[in-house]
Structures are given as C-alpha cells and as structure tokens.
C-alpha cells in the first residue's frame, strides 16, 4: 500500500509539472460536459486530477480486496508442501522448531538478498556450529550499518571462546556507542540483549567483572544475585587486587544499598565476612538487615563476627542482642548467643539457666550436649562435625 501511494504521488508531481508547462500563457483551459440533464463546467486541471484520484481509489480498493481474499484463503488452505509456504512463513516454522541447522541453506538463500544482514546471519549460523574463527572473519565483511548487530555476535563468540578481556572490551565499547537511528524502534530489545550479555559475562567471569567501568549499572537483579553467588564460590582464589576491588566496589554501592533486594544484601554480607578490615561495614549491614526483618543466618554472621575479634566487647554484644530480642520475641538463637557470652564472662549460673529454654530447638540441644562434655576438646570437635553438617544447624554454607 505504501508503494502505491508513493507511485501515485510521483505521477501527480509529473502531471503537475506538465500541466504547469503547457498552461503557461494559455490558462487552465475549459471543459464543458452535457449528458442528459447533467451539466459540468470545469478546466483541464480539475479533470486530470479527478481521474488520477479516481484511479488511485480503484487501485487501492483492488489491492485491499486482493489482500483480504488471500489472507482468508490462506486461513482455510491446507499446507501441502513446505516450499509452497510464503518465505516469511517458512522462516517462522524454522524459528519455532529451532531448525536453523536443518535449514541452513534455506536461511542463507533468504538472507543472501539482504546487503544489511547477509554476513550477520552467516556468522550466526557458523556460531551455532561452533566455527568461531570463520564467524569472526565473516563479521569483518558485514555492513557498517549493522555495526551493533555484528558487535553482539562478536561478544557472544568471545564468551564462547573464554576470551574474557576481548568480551569486556567489546561490551564496554558497545555500551558507550550511540545506537544507530534505524534501531530506535527496537531500542528496548537491544538494551535487554545488552543487559543479558553483561549478565552472562559477570556470571562467567565474576572477578573480571569487577574491572568493568559499568559495574553495577547494567545487570538485572537476577544476574546480580547469580554474580555474587559465583563470586562467593570462588572467593578463595581471589588475588590481593581482586579482594581490594571487592571492598572498593562495596563502598561504592553503599549509598544505594537500601534499594537492593534483601537476598542480594545478604550475599554482600557474606562477602564482607571474609574481610576483617571491613568489620564496621559488616556490622552496619547486618544490623540494617536485622532491622528490616529477622534472619537467623544474618544474626549468626553478626554474632560470629563479634566473637572473632581479638578482644570481643561482650557487654556491647549483649546490649545488641537485648535490643533485637525486644523486637523479635521467642527466637532461640538469642539464648544460644547469650549462653556463649555468659560462659565467656564467667556467668555460669545464668548460662545454666538458659539451657532449660527451648527444649526442641537444635541449637539449644547442641549447647545442652556440649555442656555435659565438660570442656573435652576431642569430643567437642566430634560434636561440632555432626552439627555443622546439619543444614538446620547452620544454613549458610559459604
């Protein structure tokens, strides 16, 4: 339909130019039509454009009727052969069945007619076949107009080849590149794809992601959680520089920490547990989380961090526990913590009184058994090995 409008517009311009030329110094002419009782008096300009408009209406009506009839016919027509389907329908079938490999020749034939997408599609097919070198070579010949699409292909290839630095370089460059105007209508899809690539990079290379200038800006919440989980699982292999970067990155996000989901903040807390020099930040984050809602693992991490200090301030720890106990009533873990404080400060009678509380709680059962061992380190170590392997005793494993 758009082509019909453009053709008739072009014809109208030509007629306008010709009529202007022939009418020069001769006027618009005069036409008189008499038929039965109908009389029409007009000029050549109006008559010509009247028939042009009439022709356009007839042509457009014929086109719309033909299009409607074809659409209705295809609804009831049985598909007897794949080759008889419309090329776009063929592509749809291949896409739905994920049959790019089976129909590679067909797809290449369709897109060979496209100067914009020919090399991009060929590279995609080669990428699916894991022929990364050939895919990169073909992308060098791709149209400059499809620069963003080629870059996305390169990033995926570098990720598949485990070339972290190359992938990061292209991600950084693409993120700072202004989107081509012809892609503006799919800018949301483009941004989503770029975000997914950043997430894939961060999860695959958790330490390299720390070096990104776009740290924390482009990851989805799900990707952030997966990245932190990967970081924790590999933290023992972190270099001195990477440990410093983790601490610095946390300090950078502190102002916006409250906007993060609870689960992500808990993962940051577990990371901070690894750094004694971040003890104050660890304590502040743990208290923030406990004020938001009670989580036994978070409390245990806070309590453990206090006890690991060279000279624990037992009075201050007890004050914190009392404040939390007023807010969250009936939590056995508070009695568990106080028992350790009373034992360390020589308040044996008060510690013994706590052992009568919460008879069905696993933490208190542990203390009751431990108290009967009378400081026998060998038996206590055996007891710890049993309880620490129980998921209900200490839920966090990292």
TrEMBL record:
<feature type="transmembrane region" description="Helical">
    <location>
        <begin position="7"/>
        <end position="32"/>
    </location>
</feature>
<keyword id="KW-1133">Transmembrane helix</keyword>
<keyword id="KW-0472">Membrane</keyword>
<protein>
    <submittedName>
        <fullName>Heme biosynthesis protein HemY</fullName>
    </submittedName>
</protein>
<keyword id="KW-0812">Transmembrane</keyword>
<feature type="transmembrane region" description="Helical">
    <location>
        <begin position="44"/>
        <end position="65"/>
    </location>
</feature>
């Amino acid at each position: 339909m758009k082509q019909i409008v453009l053709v008739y517009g072009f014809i109208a311009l030509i007629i306008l130019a010709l009529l202007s030329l022939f009418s020069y110094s001769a006027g618009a002419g005069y036409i008189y039509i008499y038929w039965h009782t109908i009389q029409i008096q007009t000029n050549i300009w109006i008559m010509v454009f009247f028939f042009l408009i009439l022709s356009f209406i007839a042509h457009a009506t014929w086109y719309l009727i033909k299009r409607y009839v074809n659409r209705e016919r295809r609804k009831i027509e049985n598909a007897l052969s794949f080759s008889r389907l419309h090329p776009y329908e063929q592509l749809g079938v291949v896409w739905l069945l994920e049959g790019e490999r089976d129909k590679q020749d067909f797809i290449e034939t369709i897109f060979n007619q496209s100067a914009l997408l020919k090399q991009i599609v060929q590279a995609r097919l080669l990428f699916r076949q894991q022929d990364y070198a050939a895919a990169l070579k073909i992308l060098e010949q791709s149209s400059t107009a499809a620069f963003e699409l080629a870059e996305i292909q390169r990033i995926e290839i570098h990720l598949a080849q485990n070339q972290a630095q190359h992938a990061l370089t292209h991600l950084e460059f693409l993120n700072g590149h202004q989107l081509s105007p012809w892609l503006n209508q799919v800018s949301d899809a483009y941004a989503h794809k770029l975000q997914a690539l950043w997430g894939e990079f961060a999860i695959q290379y958790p330490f390299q992601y720390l070096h990104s200038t776009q740290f924390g800006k482009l990851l989805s919440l799900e990707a952030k959680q997966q990245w932190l989980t990967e970081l924790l699982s590999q933290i023992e292999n972190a270099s001195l520089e990477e440990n410093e970067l983790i601490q610095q990155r946390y300090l950078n996000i502190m102002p916006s920490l409250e906007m993060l989901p609870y689960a992500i903040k808990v993962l940051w807390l577990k990371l901070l547990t690894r750094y004694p020099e971040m003890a104050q930040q660890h304590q502040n984050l743990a208290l923030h989380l406990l004020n938001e809602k009670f989580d036994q693992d978070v409390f245990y991490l806070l309590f453990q961090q206090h006890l690991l200090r060279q000279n624990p301030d037992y009075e201050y720890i007890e004050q914190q526990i009392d404040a939390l106990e007023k807010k969250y009533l009936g939590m056995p873990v508070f009695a568990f913590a106080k028992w350790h404080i009373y034992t360390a400060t020589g308040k044996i009678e008060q510690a013994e009184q706590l052992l009568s509380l919460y008879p069905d709680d696993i933490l208190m059962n542990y203390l009751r058994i431990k108290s009967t061992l009378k400081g026998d380190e060998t038996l206590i170590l055996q007891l710890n090995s049993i309880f620490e392997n129980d998921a209900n005793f200490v839920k966090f494993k990292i």
